[in-house]
Write a structure and sequence with these properties.
Layout lengths: L4 E4 L10 H6 L4 E2 L11 E3 L8 H11 L5 E4 H5 L5 H5 L2 H15 L6 E7 L2 E8 L2 E7 L9 E6 L2 E5 L2 H5 L3
Parallel strand pairs: 1-2, 1-4, 3-4
Antiparallel strand pairs: 5-6, 6-7, 7-8, 8-9
């Protein structure tokens, strides 16, 4: 079953959000008091430090799991009051692009696999010819990664936050 990505509005930012902000968040399901989870979700509730890229690596790995992921608005925009500008910054755009990949790529309707050894972490989703694969040489030692998506719309590779933040 395709994993879902949620947003929890812990800051009230969505109460008065303009259409552009809601458009930016289109790939996330707004969590409400009625939201129920069959399994415990991964909750990401803080903006990753720009000094510690491995904080962002935790986001990438979480988004590749088969678990629901919940982002608080604070995790997406930090303490910024200009939500629209904050959602256009590289860390936020990369996160939102991962949410879009997770929502729309056909591989996420397939089988989830992961493995970890001395070669690092390998996480992949496979659905026929559609594949999304993440390789992290050693998730404890740095921020290197290769994320590959293959499908009917072509093959794409991302190796940095900047790559993931680009318009897809």
């Amino acid at each position: 079953m395709r994993p879902v990505t949620y947003v929890y509005d812990d800051s009230g930012a969505l109460d008065d959000a303009a259409g552009f902000v809601r458009l930016q968040l289109r790939d996330l399901v707004v969590m409400t008091p009625a939201t129920n989870f069959e399994v415990d979700p991964i909750v990401l509730d803080a903006m990753p430090s720009t000094d510690h890229g491995d904080d962002f690596m935790d986001r990438i790995i979480a988004m590749m799991t088969d678990l629901p992921v919940v982002f608080t608005m604070s995790a997406l925009v930090g303490e910024r009051t200009d939500t629209e500008a904050a959602l256009n910054e590289a860390l936020s755009k990369a996160t939102l692009n991962l949410a879009g990949l997770r929502r729309f790529h056909g591989a996420f309707d397939g089988n989830y696999e992961w493995d970890s050894d001395d070669g690092g972490l390998l996480v992949q989703w496979i659905n026929g010819d559609e594949v999304v694969r993440l390789h992290v040489p050693d998730p404890r030692e740095g921020t290197d990664f290769v994320l590959v998506a293959r499908g009917p719309h072509g093959d794409f590779t991302w190796q940095s936050i900047a790559d993931l933040a680009a318009d897809i």
